[in-house]
């Protein structure tokens, strides 16, 4: 008898794949559970065991009543029941690998904007906020998709890492028609169907999925209040003028850039980007928050926002981990 994993409260189940994590078994069964980094860094896939047992890579076991990371643990029993979020919105999206060719590459200080075209026959659907794996010359890295729809191709925002494997390849001279591959879509970061006002919190290239989601909201003529907080170390690092343009064009969009480093020429908001939100709002009980950036930023923001009334179920995030 094949071991199964049951998900509550949705009461759906799927077969365990031998020597495969709970998360990967679910994904292969077409059941998308909440996740982001898949390496244990972000903690987004944390779930609670209702019945059964799991074992992590170090051989540590977790049983009923304990929490664990679905991306790091395998089922150790015939039937495992866990409490986890299941996203039917993602069930119809099939992950695939497709070739792509560079149409645009632009460097702005430490950042590069890349645009790709896909083959005419490629049907690459995703929800704004999701990410892909980009592969080039044997190197693969994860990047959020920065545009709302693939009808005009795929846009990525890349932070250039000193001596980074992918960064070095890109800096060596990416030209139009350079062939790469993308694998996706991946992740559970997308806009939930709701009427609540939104706070977008972005650190660095965490602006990429925010851009895609805001574009989608604008395209749908959404009237939701949209507050965009974008944090950078220096003012010169803000590589896009779009947020300011949106604020000038749409009454429901507000943009707050925040600089965390010592920038004597910057006269705007300073400090950690999530602290600017705390300065502007004393109660977040009516809001939802979408945060994208470092795991440290996301963890600090979640704790502090919940302390001023934000529902934990209204905090959605995607953590960026830097790869060399």
Automatic annotation (TrEMBL):
GO molecular function terms attached to this record: 2 iron, 2 sulfur cluster binding; oxidoreductase activity
UniProt cross-references to InterPro entries, sorted A to Z: 2Fe-2S_ferredoxin-like_sf (IPR036010), 2Fe-2S_ferredoxin-type (IPR001041), 2Fe2S_fd_BS (IPR006058), Beta-grasp_dom_sf (IPR012675), Cbr1-like_FAD-bd_dom (IPR008333), FAD-bd_FR_type (IPR017927), FNR_nucleotide-bd (IPR039261), MRET (IPR050415)
Pfam families reported in the protein's UniProt record: FAD_binding_6, Fer2, NAD_binding_1
- List the Gene3D superfamilies: 3.10.20.30, Nucleotide-binding domain of ferredoxin-NADP reductase (FNR) module, Translation factors
CDD domains in UniProt:
fer2, flavin_oxioreductase
Q: Which residues form the 2Fe-2S ferredoxin-type domain?
A: 3-88
Where does the FAD-binding FR-type domain lie?
Answer: 86-192
Q: What is this protein called?
A: CDP-6-deoxy-delta-3,4-glucoseen reductase
- Cited PANTHER family: NADH OXIDOREDUCTASE HCR (PTHR47354), PROTEIN RFBI (PTHR47354:SF5)
Q: Which organism is it from?
A: Aeromonas lusitana
Q: Which residues form a coiled coil?
A: none
